[in-house]
Amino acid sequence: MQQHSQYPGIRDPGLTDSQLDLVTSFIESTEVPWALAVKYLACVDYDLAAALSRYKQCEAFLKDHGLRPRPDSTAALIHYLNVALFYIPGTCDKAGASIFVFNARYYVSDVAGQRRMIKLLTYICDKAANDEATRRNGVVLISNLQGLDRKYGVLELHRLILQLLEYCLPIRVVRMLVVNAPWWTQKLSAMWKPGVCENGTLSTEMSICNDLSEHIDPSQIPRELGGSLSYKWREFVADQLETEAAGHEEQLVDVDLFETEQLSPTPRSSAQAFSFAQRAEGGST
Description:
This protein is of the alpha/beta class.
């Protein structure tokens, strides 16, 4: 893997010369770290204007909520990370999109709870975008409504999450699958229509799903969602603390080196998954 001449401490994830030029231009306009520039550009197919617009909208949104425009470190968020409000098990669906889980039962619907949710969504999107396959294939968001199914404001909460994913954060959401939602299944059609948000129209396909195995191999689904994947949230947090303490948080993972044909939309092996992917033993979150 090459090293960028202007940023010798950072490895290039197989980018073309023109893409590297766009990364440099993005950094000059925003003064963000190299890796964050790659993430914003990758989620919009290296359209510089779109990436800059996305970053500026994110900056404005977070500023309006009294938050920093860049993701906090794991250490700074450690008091929020006692539960897995959002998590990324390091697996993918049958189309190759990375799995991204929202555990709605941990959401608290007050001002402090919303602020916590925004901080953690910003954080976990940044971690997810470290992976080249995620930057290329996007994410499928699984919203687990267990314990929150009939709570007032559920649709508004999802509208806010989609607003951030579609207009602000450096990630591309392919679709949202809503699970453990019997009341919504009875009251609504199979497809939710989140409508519009402050930034514009929301276009993500948002469906009630009664069987995740229709879209995802069971081996790629965490146990709490009916699959066979053993995932340890605490080990993910520990890995991130160790990585950041070693000063490697700005490096993108080695999966970037793989050839395109090797990254087919099949379940990822341990070599292809994130450094914090599934463990061989243990419980779930």
